[in-house]
Design brief:
- This protein has 383 residues and is of the alpha/beta class.
- It is built from 9 helices and 18 strands.
- The strands form 3 sheets. The chain has a 9-stranded mixed β-sheet. Strands 1, 2, 3, 4, 5, 6 and 7 form a 7-stranded mixed β-sheet that branches. Strands 10-11 form a two-stranded antiparallel ribbon.
């Protein structure tokens, strides 16, 4: 067995997502299992280079996990010929420039979403990567999670017949920060820093809908800021200039309609923090991140509307749990493995910067739809 080291510059690991999901649960988890076995006698050994602005925080993480390489100098790291991959999970506003530098330096790039603050920038990154000949990928984690994998299995098996509609509910109450600390960083609520729930979540909804049901062809959204004042990490009040809730209607090629509510100002009365209900002519299903329940038309009961009598049926009990067909790994780690295989062997990989640009486009058009109060067509993007 040959071990090949792949050095990965990881920018943004002091943030919650960069640290927990990408460093600890993906890259370090791969090291804990002995590396990534490519099946051809080669094992890829990921060697992270922790990159960011706060050296003391980076060194604390490195010491905690027994890592060697730390830097606050992006240009120096990108100039290092031993660095193979650049990964970005910084704040949105800083991402595009760093990705440009990494691509120009000839590094393969893997990045969180959104890839840029606007469609023009996102497409420019995809073109730069194509022209430079580097491999590139965008995190699209939710389609690798057990619940949505089960839902995809039902779609591929024709369980739904003709898909009629998708209803999505996402969100939870993010504390304002005065009485209890907020669960999300304050920049998420400042538009000038690239924050806002549309910029954050519409890219997710684009790839979920695209992967499972088809391309989004139109969007109509109502975007608002329900909580106008919040308190930052130092207990200081600030004005929330970015939306904390968005209510969207998406038309999908083939005629299905998706309605997805996204909110950081909603209290959870669901089994999971996000759920999608899919209704089709032959059956329906409800999927979260881990679970999926289905009801075929042959097992669909006949409810009768009668407001004068209490309901005697327990509707949730009339659905069947969709079983696991395989053991599911962490969704972020699963996609990292596919991307590293792509980098090393050129295996097919479709979740690239062009796919990321579709998510940026949908967020941009969703905000425009809300501002103009109308439905907007979503044209196909191309390089």
């Amino acid at each position: 067995m040959t071990r090949k080291t792949v050095r990965i510059a990881m920018n943004g690991v002091t943030g919650r997502m960069g640290y927990r999901q990408h460093l600890v649960r993906s890259i370090l988890a791969l090291r804990d299992q002995g590396g990534l076995d490519l099946g051809d006698g080669t094992v890829l050994w990921p060697e992270p280079v922790l990159l960011g602005r706060r050296e003391h925080a980076l060194r604390e993480i490195a010491e905690r996990h027994g890592l060697e390489h730390v830097s606050t100098d992006l240009d120096a790291v990108l100039a290092d010929p031993d660095v193979d991959v650049y990964f970005d999970s910084q704040v949105t506003a800083a991402r595009e420039e760093s990705l440009r530098k990494a691509i120009a330096a000839g590094k393969h790039v893997y990045t969180e979403k959104p890839t840029a603050t606007g469609l023009a920038g996102a497409l420019a990154l995809a073109r730069l990567a194509r022209d430079r000949g580097v491999r590139h990928g965008v995190v699209q984690d939710k389609i690798f999670l057990p619940g949505l994998r089960k839902l995809k299995r039902l779609v591929d098996a024709g369980f739904f017949g003709r898909v009629l509609s998708v209803r999505g509910e996402f969100g939870y109450w993010v504390f304002e920060g005065d009485r209890q600390p907020a669960q999300r960083p304050s920049w998420n609520y400042r538009a000038e820093d690239g924050g806002g729930i549309v910029v954050d979540m519409f890219p997710h909804w684009e790839y979920v809908l695209h992967e499972l049901f088809g391309r989004v062809t139109s969007v109509q959204a109502l975007v608002t800021t329900h909580i106008p004042q919040r308190w930052d990490e130092h207990g200081r009040p600030y004005d929330a200039t970015a939306a904390d809730a968005a209510y969207g209607i998406f038309e999908i090629e083939g005629g299905a309609i998706a309605q997805i509510n996204s909110s950081w100002a909603v209290r959870v009365h669901r089994d999971e923090l996000v759920e999608f209900q899919v209704d089709g002519t032959h059956g329906s299903a409800v999927a979260g991140l881990r679970h999926c329940r289905a009801q075929h038309r042959d097992a669909t009961p006949m409810p009768v509307w009668n407001p004068d009598l209490p309901a005697t049926e327990v509707f949730r009990d009339q659905w069947q749990e969709v079983p696991d067909d395989a053991e599911s790994d962490n969704g972020f780690k699963a996609q990292w493995e596919l991307f590293l295989r792509h980098v090393h062997a050129g295996t097919p990989y479709r979740w690239d910067l062009l796919a990321g640009a579709r998510g940026v486009q949908l967020a941009e058009l969703g905000l425009r739809s809300s501002a103009e109060g109308r439905r907007i067509d979503v044209p196909e993007v191309a390089l």
